[in-house]
Amino acid sequence: MADGRNATLAGARRGTPATVSGARRRAQGSWPLAAVAAAFTVAQLVLVGPGLGLGWDETVYVSQISAQAPPAFFSAPRARGVSLLVAPVTSWSTSTALLRVYLAVLSGLGLHLALRVWLPFFPARVLAAAGALFASLWVTLFYGPAAMPNHWVAIGALACVGCFLRARADRTDRAALWGVAAGAALMAWMRPTDAVWTTLPLLVLLVPARSGRLALALLAGLATGGGQWIAEAYLGHGGLGQRLSDASRIQGGLGRHLAVDDQLRSLVGRTLCRPCTGPMPDPVVVAWWCLLPLAAAAGLAVAVRARRTTPTLLPLACAATAAVPYLFLIGYAAPRFLLPAYALLALPVADALSHLVTAPRGRVRPAATGLLALGLAGHLAVQYVVLDRVVDRTAADRRDWSRTAADLHRSGVRPPCLVTGTQAVPVAYYAGCSSANPRGHDANTTEAGIARTARRIPTAALSPPGGRPPPYARGWRTRPSAGLDLHLAPPPGTGAR
């Protein structure tokens, strides 16, 4: 790793690609990256499976452009990127399996392209190891084939930072400029606020560099997604300030919150840790998370000795800023929030691990290699166990939603129809109905509005078992379903109230 094949960017002449290798080297080095990406795609399809039903947030994104159900309420924090990403499938097909396969293949391709960007700065073996480390995390495997934004923010971040470095090294590299814009746009379309946090170090570097084209590429990419989100704020949320305020409220009030312990608790497989209470997971589950910053720091030390500090320091800085809001500004946790940070940290971590097994000589090298292999085997085993539990639990929840939708159909609640109450959003999607709620984060109507709608189309209100129905549903017929009570409005046109 210290053989000098990659020189530092800092010592390069302007306009000279100090770290950019030839096309032949990039072509030769791309096949290990393609193998990792292909393995990632296959692992998603085998370990998660195309048959896994859609989750709550997924039904919101998919329903925006879907042949399955009317659009669900789109709350202030959400952005349109996922809906556009899945539109080539959801606009004409209701097959969840087809959607999962499409997303698994797309996520593998995205990982491959994002890793290729870094070939001028790291040996192919290091990049392949970085891709494998990122792809083997249970949270990456679970969300790779999911209609969710965080994995794509991670891919966009990896591509954007790498292309930024290439564009700084060679101002004639137009492909790198387009890569910066595309990576920033991907992040901004998926989660505009995440895009800003992740690119903060890049924006800081642009101030002294005075690189107009690079600044234009980065800002244009951010503007494509962020601009749409801002425009939508004025069209449907009462302005940008109001949308930001609503987004903060929905997320529990952004401010000073130490969520590091929440993130640790979520590593056991809690896809949403809100409220995040209970004991800490077993140390073997959180060991990799605690070692991650130490390994990244070791990677930085390796890079300094190899005279390529900048290509390691910049992704470290972007990973840190990407993680800040989810570690210190939000009062709950979800493992997927940190996917962009994990993708960027994988580079220096892989560099450190590669150095561990290649730098020692004599009898030390086999011992270091064996120790590393043992540690990685244990890490993979833990990730697999957690992933298996997550898939089993979420699959059971989604089967319950499907059974509830079937019960609604048997009870006469068929499209066009309305579902409201507890878990109304996913159940409505599965049933092909609209969803509505008079209160909560997804409030988009009033109780009087629901009562009026019930006179026109089949309507059902959902509540926990044994719970009291809402005022507008008192007197409606009640029947049990999969963990819910269904309160069924009288059939439209019967004259009943």
Description of the structure:
With 497 residues, the chain is mainly α. It is built from 18 helices and five strands. The protein has helices spanning 23-48, 56-63, 81-90, 96-116, 124-135, 138-143, 150-169, 174-190, 192-209, 212-236, 240-250, 260-266, 283-305, 310-328, 339-358, 364-410, 424-431, 447-454, and strands at 418-421, 434-436, 459-463, 477-480, 485-488. A five-stranded mixed β-sheet has the order 2-1-3-5-4. β1, α17 and β2 form a beta-alpha-beta unit.
What is the fold's blueprint, element by element?
Elements lengths: L22 H26 L7 H8 L17 H10 L5 H21 L7 H12 L2 H6 L6 H20 L4 H17 L1 H18 L2 H25 L3 H11 L9 H7 L16 H23 L4 H19 L10 H20 L5 H47 L7 E4 L2 H8 L2 E3 L10 H8 L4 E5 L13 E4 L4 E4 L9
Parallel strand pairs: 1-2, 1-3
Antiparallel strand pairs: 3-5, 4-5
Taken from the alpha-carbon principal axes, the silhouette is: globular
Helix content: 55-70%
Strand order of the largest sheet: 2-1-3-5-4
User: What is the gyration radius calculated from CA atoms?
Assistant: 25 Å
Range of strand content: under 5%
Which whole number gives the mean pLDDT? 91
What is the overall number of helices?
18
Q: Give the number of DSSP strands.
A: 5
- Based on helices, strands and strand pairing, what is the structural class? mainly alpha
Q: How widely separated are the two ends?
A: 76 Å
Stretches where pLDDT falls below 50 for ≥5 residues?
1-21
Q: What is the ordering of alpha helices and beta strands?
A: HHHHHHHHHHHHHHHHEHEHEEE
Major sheet characteristics:
5 strands, mixed
